[in-house]
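Notebook, bench 3.
Goal today: get a predicted structure for Alpha-L-fucosidase 2 from Solanum tuberosum so we can plan the truncation constructs. The sequence was checked against the plasmid map this morning, with no discrepancies at the termini. Length recorded as 385 residues. Pasting the sequence as submitted so the record is complete.
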Amino acid sequence: MELTNYSKNVVLLVLLIVFPFSIAAKSKSPCDFPAVFNFGDSNSDTGGLSAAFGQAGPPAGETYFGAPAGRYCDGRLVIDFIAESLGIPHLSAFLDALGSNFSHGANFATAGSTIRPQNTTLHQSGFSPISLNVQSYEFNDFLHRSQIIRNKGDVFSKLMPKEKHFSEGLYTFDIGQNDLTAGYFNNMSTDQVRAYVPDVIDQFKTVIKGIYSRGGRYFWIHNTGPVGCLPYVLDRLLITAGQVDKAGCASPFNEVAQYFNAKLKEAVIQLRKDLPLAALTYVDVYSVKYELIYRANKHGFEHPLQACCGHGGKYNFNINHGCGSKIKVKGKEVILGKSCKNPSERINWDGVHFTEAANKWVFEQIVNGLYSDPPLPLNMACHKK
């Protein structure tokens, strides 16, 4: 039976209502990102802190790399899965001078980094001095010097990105978690931590605008995860029984994370107005990570609030004896912070970071755009709508 024009319009309207994102996506061509430039903290650090302050030791890297590989994880991070999905190599850390290949981008993230500078040493606070503004300085230097090296045409030129990669590449961000925990570890109240969030967000916006002014156009921005579900937070910070939520997480800390995320989303909306040529994607990893922790068994995981690699206590986390730590027994070194038998069944690796299995699960949820604003998949992130 032939459809009338009216019937065709009704069918099209129904399709648009039921499948709006898939139809919109099919009307646009996939993005061909030749490079990725990443900024962040330990959630996406592929070797920056290790290069500057010493390698993250074994058993880090055991699941995928077979040895420590600069990541605070048993294997790959979300940023590694992003690179793989785009068909480019894993990102080399900008600070790593050994064996790095920057032809398809660079990673400026370092473990312990914050958006707002902490004005303390790594030894004093555990937070990296390489805050987001420093990472942006590194990016500016990399942009300039990489092209000088390429233009020389020597053996190193092939290890540098092409000039057009800086305008065609994807700029990824995963940072902010440490800005929240830094306040709590400095004995601030929840109200005090909330009070400085707007300033943190303003500094984030400044960095985005700086990259935009240098040609960056495509931004993939993760919000921060549920910090109140991390073993190192649950172990170190006091909470009352009434502050424990349905997943066993600390509500006050998660509420601050949600406040941070709300302000971050407002900033992204404003940046779209301020930067008309940019495509900015806001990715709600908080919801994904909380779902994984809350319904761990459903998704094939167990003991969601315990570290896989650690030693002792309710959460298998001890700040004095972390993952890979050793002690001497009768003159011999013995590993105290051992890895669990099957990291693929665990969400948390070392009390702070996710396992490769959990990172892979998170990536699989966000890659299709279901948790993004606008709701476009990763390979369509060069489009605004």
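The two ends are 35 Å apart (CA to CA). Residues 36-231+251-304+356-380 form a domain with the Rossmann fold fold (CATH 3.40.50).
Flagging this for group meeting.
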